[in-house]
Amino acid sequence: MSSIDIHHAHSLSDESAHAAIAEVARKLQERFEVSTRWEGRNLHFARAGVEGAIEMLPGAVRVKAELGFLLSAMKGMVESEIRRVLAEKLG
């Protein structure tokens, strides 16, 4: 298994950051068929081969994910895509 741990700072209000993360969740559901659920300020996501969460922190988000065997081979690509989407949605 491979792990991803990304910390991304932003200058959005909590409300705006929550809305941006909710949009990311919708895209994850559509594109990768993951299941998502909010638990407090954390958005958990999962599907076969990946499990993780997006944690809302003051002025930042933290994305943690565990990749299964098959996705571990594509860790660099997955991590790059996460960073791109965070930059697009959160600035």
Description:
This protein has helices at 14-32, 69-72, 75-90; strands spanning 2-9, 35-39, 42-47, 50-57, 60-67. It has one domain (2-90): TATA-Binding Protein. 43% of the residues lie in helices and 38% in strands. The model has no long low-confidence stretch (mean pLDDT 92). The protein has 91 residues and is an alpha+beta fold. The longest helix is centred in the N-terminal third of the chain and has 19 residues, at 14-32.
Poorly predicted sequence stretches spanning 5 or more consecutive residues: none
Helix content: 40-55%
Secondary structure tally, helices: 3
What shape does the CA trace take? Answer: globular
Distance between the termini: 30 Å
Question: CATH topology, what is it called?
Answer: TATA-Binding Protein
Q: What fraction of the residues are assigned to beta strands by DSSP?
A: 35-45%
User: How many strand units?
Assistant: 5
Overall pLDDT confidence: 92
In the CATH hierarchy, what is the architecture at level 2? Answer: 2-Layer Sandwich
The biggest sheet amounts to: 5 strands, antiparallel
Work out the radius of gyration: 12 Å
CATH class: Alpha Beta
Strand order of the largest sheet: 1-5-4-3-2
CATH superfamily: Alpha-D-phosphohexomutase, C-terminal domain
Structural domain tally: 1
Structural class of the secondary structure composition?
Answer: alpha+beta
Q: Could you provide a short overview of the structure?
A:
The chain is built from 3 helices and 5 strands, in the order E-H-E-E-E-E-H-H. It has helices spanning 14-32, 69-72, 75-90, and strands spanning 2-9, 35-39, 42-47, 50-57, 60-67.
